[in-house]
Amino acid sequence: VPSLNTFAGAHIDRAGHRRTDPEWLRERLADPTSRALVCGTGGVYVDASTDPPRPVLAPLLALSLQEEPVLLGVDDVGALFAVGIDGSAPRLDGAVPMELREAGARMSQRDGGLVAYAAAITNWHRSHPHCARCGAVTKVGEAGHVRDCPNCGAQHHPRTDPVVIMLVHDGDRALLGRQATWPEGRYSALAGFVEPGESLEEAVAREVLEESGIEVGEVLYRSSQPWPFPTSLMLGFHATYAGGEAAVGDAELQDVRWFDRDELLEIAAGGTGFHLPPPLAIARRLIDEWLGA
Ligand SMILES: [Zn+2]
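That is the input. Now the predicted structure with zinc ion docked in place:
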């Protein structure tokens, strides 16, 4: 079991205090050592000629920018930015777009973390051009970490949407469900968005009851995973069974059922018609941790 989930571990100095330092920012925007990750709607631009693939760190001065780039932080070389693009590809020699799941599965831990960071914040900018209060077009502020409304003065911060994902277990059996849109035979841990005014423990209990009719007892936090599809944060839990019969409870799931430990070990080894999520998903880690316990 890895120590970090895929898409975590960018290990970059985010240099938050520089976001409000206009002189430093002006210098970095003109600095030939400043580089940018480029994110399109189809994924992040990578140098696919290397194995593992690496994100292209394009000289910022070589990019034609539609708006101010987002400061991701500072590394040994200099300032690192993210640039979101729509439609037409930038002219970057050897750079091709790679879908984020593939990038996360193939890149180093650090590069996977960097592309998740860049994708999540450029996704937010792409989908929030207008003020949520008055509808005016907003402007990038704080080096890309807020959007300011010039009309009503509202300041909008990047969204991160919390999702609880939990493996419910009862002795030697664990509860998994499947959505109709998933690949044939795939089962995974139950999951759902945290609602306003709800603790994480309450969200776990509510989602499991809604989706499966099962009541949970103890809820134990395990680990978390940035999930930039488009701006989620997955919060992983183990939860103990407290009562109820497993039955599909809402339209989200096609099936929900218990799997014995031996059955899951066989599935994890690839020996049956069932499949578990790929290793990059926190759901798989939650299952593997339980199997190894
Ligand atoms: Zn406004």
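The CA atoms of residues 209 and 291 lie 23 Å apart.
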